Amino acid sequence: MAEILKPDGKPTAPTADSNLEALGYTAELSRNRSTWQVVFMCFILASVPYGLSTTMSYSLIGGGSANMVWGWILVSLIMLCVAVSLAEITSVYPTAGGVYYQTFALSPSWCRRASAWVCGWSYVAGNITITLAVNFATALFFVECLNVFEDASGAGIAENFQTYQTYLIFVAITFICHAIPAFANRWLPWIEYFAIFWTVIGVTAILITILVVAHNGRRSAEWVFTSFEPQSGWPDGWSFCIGLLQAAYGLSATGMVTSMCEEVRKPAIQVPRAIVGGILLNALAGAAFLIPIAFVLPDIAMLAQIPSAQPVPTIVKSATGNSAGAFCLLIPLIVLGLICGLGCATATSRATWAFARDGAIPGSTWWKKVDRFTQIPLNSLLLGMVIELLLGLIYFGSSAAYNAFSGVGVIFLTLSYACPVIVSLLLRGRQDLQRGSFNLGPLGSFCNVVCIGWCLLAIPLFSMPTSAAVTKDTMNYASVVFVGFVLISALWYWVWGRKNYVGPVLEPLDT
To answer: Where are the transmembrane segments (predicted)?
Structure first.
């Protein structure tokens, strides 16, 4: 690339677009986000109060209050190590391809194509299934919120909803969460600003109300931090680990924001800061949300048996003693769920688009296009929506479908995050990170080891059924969805990839 000179004859500082060209791509997206906007997007992608609310059954079944509180703290520290690991690498390779591009760029030539293929498919599949999990959880959560109102017999008014009714609610939510990013992309940063204030005000109202009213009394601090009442039937240690899925799901979006690298002005600086800052912000928000709720938990065994696996509406109603009041307090979480769906759909479309422009997805010619009118990868956005709607049909076969969506999303994203870290640490000795603006040296190496260890634990852990007594409705179908995506990617590699896939265009590293 020719060097650009200032009027005084001195070279200009490289721009984000020129750096992107050096990495092998032409800038096609508008760079309209600031550092804080990326941090806020990290917060929205996680939407911690909402995410923890829709997956609270995992920790309650796993061990109750202690599992919920200490599991969150443990996973937050682990995910901080993951965030640091990704931030270091992103400061060197800031593209919308995220961990997929980074894995390709860091890998030696003998394994470059295969490692990037595995990472790319894991990353795209993780984005799609996490978006699906978010939207499906919003549907289940909304139905359970309706159940705070009871009929004359004392049953929730939506307790007898048919499967198709819940699915139709999911379809409506999915359409909304994809239509807004499609036609109002320029307004998304403002929606994220709104979400921050909405979260603070709404969650504060929930926590103050339930603690002050505490209709059925408050638990002691000793009970909150030490009570361990596993309901899973597994041995205590394994039960605690399975309960970690609540926290892992809440923080699973850690690296998804790397897909926005081509929409910020200084991605090599802004995005790494946002990844780490987002984790710290979410960790504090999660602790501030979970601990007050733990003080007003009703009977753990009763909460673990709720058919929808959505205990928070029951908890809020128990604490307030009033159906209308409980529903009003739950509205902020419902809205936050919708906003989280917007952020996840946006990030998923960018990840799919970035992978498609290297020809790695069947029909890449369609999915790599940037729509001239909306100025976003609209086709990729629609592809993600269609796949999510189709996978949602699993719910007709099992009421435990949400376990599959949330579990496999965490598995895929964790695997994709670990791929560039494994290559950087074990095959390259972290030598490429010397060029980055975010290099923590020995501390970074420690974080890399933790990141890899977490991946090795998460894959088998979150494929396991929540309860030891496995039935059609308690079976964890995450492994089925996981194997399905693996088979599709392997088949496409055999049919097309092994002869045609070359990966991103970049200057080769020393091998």
So the answer is: 38-58, 70-93, 114-143, 163-184, 196-217, 237-258, 279-304, 324-347, 378-398, 404-427, 439-462, 474-496
State the average pLDDT for the chain. 85
Tokens of 236: 């205590």
| Domains, the chain, with CATH or none | 37-500 (1.20.1740.10)
From the CB of residue 300, how many other CB atoms can be counted at a distance below 10 Å? 19
Residue with tokens 């004359």: 152
The DSSP code for 448 is H
> How far is residue 223's CA from residue 209's CA, in Å, rounded to a whole number?
21
pLDDT value of residue 407: 85
CA 64 to CA 248: how far, in whole Å?
Answer: 16
Residue 424 has pLDDT above 90, yes or no: yes
Q: How deeply is 218 buried, as exposed, middle or buried, from its count of CB atoms within 10 A (0-12, 13-18, 19+)?
A: middle
pTM of the predicted protein model: 0.85
CA distance 58 to 62: 6
Cβ contacts of 125 within 8 Å, gap of 6 or more? 408, 412, 485, 489
Alpha carbon distance 232, 465 (integer Å): 9
CB 98 within 8 A of CB 258: yes
- Angstrom distances, CA of residue 454 to CA of 80, 199, 461: 12, 29, 10
The crossing angle, in degrees rounded to 10, of helices 323-356 and 99-106 is: 40
How far out from the chain centre does Cα 499 lie? 33
For 477, list phi and psi in degrees, rounded to 5: -90, 15
State the amino acid at position 342 in one-letter form: L
The per-residue DSSP string of 75-107 comes to HHHHHHHHHHHHHHHHTT--STTTHHHHHHHHS
- As beta bridge partners, residue 156 has 150
Q: If DSSP codes are grouped into helix, strand and coil, which group holds residue 5?
A: strand
